[in-house]
Write a structure and sequence with these properties.
By secondary structure, this protein is mostly beta strands. 6% of the residues lie in helices and 34% in strands. It has a seven-stranded antiparallel sheet with strand order 15-10-7-12-5-4-24. The protein has a six-stranded antiparallel sheet with strand order 3-21-20-23-17-16, with no helix packed on it. It binds fe (ii) ion. Pfam families: HgmA_N.
């Protein structure tokens, strides 16, 4: 049975007003959904003199980061981070690939930052645009046909199947009604097909991270009808209704949009910030010891950057690395969160690729260091 112990200077409930002169730190298991202790410390845990080794937080700006599929229409997205459960890549595809693609290694979650286009697949056609998710099940034959030339998408391939996580006591309508998930329409596909010309049609299949090609003497998007529960779908971020509390910073996992084994996709959407006088007005310092944290700034609902949070700033904080609010945030907490963040948590330790390391912001972890007057 879970037992709560308490010693020394504490408060009655976590994330209330911190005791004078202290900084609350959460030592948390299972991504803040499991056991947790709060430590009330005399110093911010981010007030380090230096950090050595791969535990340091890292950062990269993806907004104008080159991607191989920008110029090469046959290329795959450019991978930045990977582990056994997932890989995260960026795509800047401006011309459709001259083939259909089938990922037989896992599911694919695409979050469109900029640009719009049409998904054509076995199940029909589906328009996509900025700040929208596409979830494409393993084994689907598909093709993305961009309508725009300035495009940026985050592409996450998971080893296990992606689904909507259990909402528990929240019920069916938070953080979004399942009914807003749009699926492709077959009627348009019958007129459009894959958009490729014969006499031979190619399907590129990825299995074991190796590519093969299957060729047909007909357009493989020849489906006359379909039924079942395996299909791509789209979620618009504007349909997310974030769970909020005026009295507490709700745990990140409350914002879970999708999940696969070992991977959480949490979408932090614009919302009120905790404003009760008795509440802590910042996120507590924390060690999320079971997960690596990726945070990507997606900008405002209008697609604009936010001061100090440029669109495409991606940060990676390894599990167990202490982090938390800076001195400026402590002095001037937000009244409202005005932007979107994509937070991907991975149970396995992430490995940055050479594409990441070549472009990463030098000494980014220094930005995470607490400097300035304390409490
Ligand atoms: Fe965190």
């Amino acid at each position: 049975m879970w037992a709560k112990h308490a010693q020394g200077t504490v408060i009655r409930q976590a994330q209330g007003a911190w005791p004078q002169g202290t900084y609350e730190e959460h030592h948390a298991r299972d991504g803040f959904a499991g056991d947790c202790s709060q430590l009330y410390r005399a110093h911010p845990t981010t007030e380090w003199t230096r950090v050595e080794g791969p535990i340091r937080p890292r950062g990269i700006l993806t907004d104008d980061l080159p991607a191989e599929d920008d110029a090469d229409e046959r290329a795959q997205p450019t991978t930045l981070l990977e582990c056994a459960d997932m890989r995260l890549s960026i795509s800047r595809r401006r011309r459709p690939a001259p083939y259909l693609f089938r990922n037989a290694d896992g599911d694919t979650v695409i979050l469109v930052q900029r640009g719009s286009g049409l998904l054509v697949c076995d199940y029909g056609t589906l328009e996509y645009g900025p700040l929208e998710y596409l979830v494409i099940p393993k084994g689907t034959n598909y093709r993305l046909i961009p309508h725009t030339t300035d495009n940026l998408s985050y592409v996450v391939e998971t080893t296990a199947a992606v689904g909507v996580p259990d909402r528990g006591l929240l019920g069916h309508f938070l953080p979004f009604d399942i009914g807003v998930l749009d699926v492709p329409r077959l009627d348009a596909l019958r007129a459009h097909g894959s958009g490729l010309d014969g006499p031979e049609w190619e399907i590129v299949v990825k299995r074991g991270e190796r590519l093969s090609s299957i060729f047909h003497p007909f357009d493989p998007l020849d489906v006359e009808g379909w039924q079942g529960s395996v299909t791509p779908y789209r979620l618009r971020l504007r349909d997310i209704r974030p769970v909020t509390s005026e009295r507490m910073d709700v745990p990140p996992i409350t914002h879970a949009t999708f999940a696969a084994e070992g991977v959480w996709f949490c979408t932090m959407a614009p919302r009120i910030w905790q404003n009760d006088p008795e509440a802590a007005h910042v996120q507590p310092y924390h060690r999320n010891v079971d997960y690596d944290e990726i945070i990507i700034n997606l900008g405002s609902p209008e697609g604009d950057g936010v001061p100090g949070r440029p669109i495409g700033l991606m940060t990676v904080t390894p599990g167990g690395m202490n982090h938390g609010p800076g001195a400026a945030m402590l002095r001037h907490p937000m009244e409202r969160m005005p932007f979107y963040l994509l937070n991907i948590d991975t149970r396995q330790a992430l490995r940055p690729t050479s594409a990441f390391e070549q472009a990463e912001i030098p000494d980014f972890y220094e930005r995470q260091r607490f400097s300035g007057p304390g409490r």
